[in-house]
């Protein structure tokens, strides 16, 4: 059996209970050493076979999994954050299915959630933004034309950029050319929830300078949008005293009908 497990955003105690239990039971653990906190390996039982995938290609990773499966062992493939976001798990699943090897997925806390937590930030503020776009700039992996930085910027939603801190100059320039205000609030969160976490809030026009000043080139999320400022929003109607729900009757002269 192969378990794809989300390691969480970084902090050792932010893995799910299920993920921790699977690490404790695993005979083989393959983890992304360049992204996953190695402290999570302390949950592994004595004698567990551990492999760092940062120096391995897909074929080599799968060879380890196949050998473990042939020996009747339990494998945990430990991915950073939540495996469904930039985890490259589909290609692994396809190869497992070709051999009729069973697998499952345990979700994890994504780094974009960890970043919001460290910023004390709510992504979906009424009257400001009710949508979050999770995306990346093109690099060695291309991006569909309709999902370009410029195309997505037109929506005006909060934007969270993964894998894009390598070119903060290009990102900020493209966003501003697409019509995003140079004064748009931005945040850079380096290694969210890790012990060496760093976080900075700035205007879009100062994004590159901020990243350069603090030597941030990788392992960081960039958040762009009015919600970064966490101000000027409308209060939620759900908790308004005059709002009626199936559980509570609104009070006051402006009480709403159910």
What structural class do the secondary elements suggest? alpha/beta
Instruction: Report helical residue fraction.
Output: 10-25%
What is the CA-based Rg, rounded?
22 Å
Corresponding CATH superfamily of the largest domain: Tetrapyrrole methylase, C-terminal domain
**Series of secondary-structure elements, N-terminal to C-terminal:** EHEEHEHEHEHEHEEHE
pLDDT averaged residue by residue: 94
Which strand order spans the largest sheet, edge to edge or round the barrel? 3-2-4-1-5
How would a textbook summarize the main sheet? 5 strands, parallel
How would you describe the overall organization of this protein?
The chain has 2 domains: 2-109, Cobalt-precorrin-4 Transmethylase, domain 1, CATH 3.40.1010.10; 112-229, Methyltransferase, Cobalt-precorrin-4 Transmethylase, Domain 2, CATH 3.30.950.10. It is globular. 24% of the residues lie in helices and 19% in strands. The chain has helices at 17-25, 58-70, 90-98, 111-118, 149-153, 168-177, 207-213; strands at residues 2-6, 28-31, 49-52, 75-79, 103-106, 132-136, 158-162, 185-190, 198-203, 220-224. The chain contains 7 helices and 10 strands. It is an alpha/beta fold.
Question: What is the secondary structure topology, with strand pairs?
Answer:
Blueprint lengths: L1 E5 L10 H9 L2 E4 L17 E4 L5 H13 L4 E5 L10 H9 L4 E4 L4 H8 L13 E5 L12 H5 L4 E5 L5 H10 L7 E6 L7 E6 L3 H7 L6 E5 L34
Parallel strand pairs: 1-4, 1-5, 2-3, 2-4, 6-7
Antiparallel strand pairs: 7-10, 8-9, 8-10
């Amino acid at each position: 059996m192969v378990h794809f497990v989300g390691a969480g955003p970084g902090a050792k105690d932010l893995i799910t209970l299920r993920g921790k239990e699977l690490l404790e039971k695993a005979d083989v653990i393959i983890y992304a050493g360049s992204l996953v906190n190695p402290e999570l390996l302390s949950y592994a039982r004595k004698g567990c076979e551990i492999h760092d995938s940062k120096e391995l290609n897909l074929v080599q990773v799968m060879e380890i999994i196949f050998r473990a499966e042939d020996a009747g062992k339990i494998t945990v493939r430990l991915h950073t954050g939540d495996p469904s976001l930039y985890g490259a798990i589909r290609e692994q699943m396809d190869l497992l299915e070709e051999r009729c090897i069973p697998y499952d997925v345990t979700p994890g806390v994504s780094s974009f959630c960890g970043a919001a937590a460290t910023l004390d930030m709510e992504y979906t503020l009424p009257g400001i933004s009710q949508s979050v776009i999770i995306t990346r700039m093109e690099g060695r992996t291309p991006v569909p034309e309709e999902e370009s930085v410029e195309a997505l910027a037109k929506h005006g939603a909060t934007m969270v950029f993964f894998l894009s801190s390598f070119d903060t100059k290009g990102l900020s320039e493209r966003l501003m050319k697409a019509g995003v205000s140079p004064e748009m609030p931005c945040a850079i969160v380096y290694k969210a929830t890790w012990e060496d976490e760093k976080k900075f809030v700035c205007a879009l026009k100062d994004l590159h300078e901020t990243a350069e000043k603090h030597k941030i080139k990788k392992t960081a999320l960039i958040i762009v949008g009015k919600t970064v400022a966490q101000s000027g929003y409308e209060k939620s109607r759900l908790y308004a005293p005059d709002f009626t729900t199936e559980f509570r009757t609104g009070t006051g002269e402006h009480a709403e009908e159910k």
